[in-house]
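Lab notebook, bench 4. The sequencing result for the construct came back, and we need a structural model before the next group meeting so we can plan mutations. Quick request posted to the team channel:

Model the 3D structure of this chain.
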Amino acid sequence: MARSVRIDDLFRFILPGSPALSPDGARVAFVVKRVNAKENRYESHLYVMPAKGGRARQLTRGLVSDGAPTWSPDGQHLAFVSDRGGKAANVWVLPVDGGEPWQLTDLKGGPVASLSYSPDGKELAFAHLEMPWVDPEARKKQAHFKHVTRLYHKEDGTGWFGDAYWTIWKAQASNGRAKALTPGAHHDQFPSWSPDSKKIVFVTNRSAEADRTPDLGQVCVMDRQGKGVREISRGTGSREAPVFALDGKHVYWVGYEGGSGEWLEHEHTVHRAPVDGKGPIRELNVGHDRWAMNMVGTDTTSAQSTIVRVYRDGEQERVLFGSDEDGSYRLYSLPAEGGAPPRLEFGGKVSVIGTSVRADLGIAIACAATTADTGELYRVRLDGSNEPQRLTQLTKPFFRPLKFNLPEEVRIKNGKTELQGWVLKPPGFRAGKKYPTLIEVHGGPMTQYGEAWFHEMHVLAGKGWVVAYCNPRGSSGRGTDFSGCIEGEWGEKDWSDIQAFSDWVAKQPYVDSKRLGILGGSYGGYMSLWAVGHTNRYKAACAQRNAADFWIHWGSSDYGWFRTKFFGGKHPWDAPGEYHKVSPAFYAQNVRTPLLLIHSEGDLRCPIAESEMMFTAMKLLGKAPCELVRFEGEFHGLSRGGKPRNREERLKRIVDWFERYL
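Done. Here's the predicted structure in token form:
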């Protein structure tokens, strides 16, 4: 018998991703992530299946996190990144048609990214942030302290990296002998091979201001020995995901031309530059005012952030890229020379979370999520037909026993601004009954709600609450004017939109307007605090991983000093009043709403001091109930990537709070 979604369903998650087409286009490898409840951790394993559909075969097993599969050019092996044996992340290799995986590299700690074989099959390139102090064996022999000399020395999710830098490495495919190609005091990422295996393109930040501008980067090429490094981009800008053209004479990447911290002000476009530096750099999708990164928020997928792929369509070379728009993340393509509007290849109500392309076959395998599943594989014909073929039913066992409604999309007006929103009704919803209702606010602010299955929301709906959520001004998916209009003005246009949406929700015949609650995390936590400091309409609130005081945030967040852009380039000592004006903690004296604060002690994006300040103020004022729940050893992404038992406890605390006060 079908039942409502429960908190403990997170231990049953089936989360597919990272598709990789074989060189002949006949097979696709992919990753499935699950929760190991007994060990309180995640497991990820590799699978392979026919690219035209059929039975999937599991390739790896055990208490491991295997990911980032990449095929050898001969199609006989898969290289992948794994923490096997309880060791640091390393490159492993697996015979696809039978045999045990073997460890190729012996790295001592830190993440590995952008793994790929050279087209001649002799070497693999990857980016590595060497952090030997995270190795358990090394920690036993070291003093435990941190000596900080750089402004940019930590990042949420990665942790403290001190004087370490992302470096491009290569390893011999035959024996694993590894070499750092770009040693030095600079971050180098996103390596990608040329078709003839003679060059590697990558992104670096080697400017004199690199420590102050970690979001910027230059696109460079070098030979396979790490020699002859030469920039092919020009001027300042933010760039990522470079790939060679099919003839090796040009490079494509995604980014914008502009200064540090200006990501809200620019279209993130596909660029094309000649490798020899002769000739113009072209922006191919000028006017397609959408981000190329997947910003659709959820707690059940790990999206591949930026997609750029090159393929041949008849005699024409085209570039496949992702587009974050209107609650979805879609695939478009452009001719290599530009000069034509983007062509939709895979659209509709989907959020693409991974893609692999065979350049000569004109096909792609995409992993895409919807509001009804956590991701399935699709075969996409790259001919403009926009007719994907669903290949898998991987998540069916998870959803089979569950009873839930799909969110209903709504469009409302706040003055001249149209807002996109959704209403999720409880299972067994009955017309004529009035339901207590929760307003969810997403993080960012430049992310968006949309095409994704959200476990947290279905848990809340399963408890008998209506859950409503929208994309206020400041969200992504609607262009730079929509996302950038709140810069330096948090708590104004965005708050106006949240109020307008709450007004609309309260007027619905099935909503008990006297029992509204509000909750959110990160920017959503900020807006939850802002709401209860400016109105008493919400009967209970939960602010998670929030920004409460921009003085604290500016000096202690991993990217806090970037916020000066939001204040006209002014630092706190230049404009203390402007920082106070948008800080919810300075409105704590107005709060009469029961407030639950949830924060991770290892949060480097919005440090826990922000919740501590709000908690202290609330307790001293004594005007409303307030509790603080602190999670040990967790980071900013607790709700979507924290330890499973901590995620379970977090949801229990949220449910308990609203059952008490709503």
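The two ends are 29 Å apart (CA to CA).
Will bring this to the meeting.
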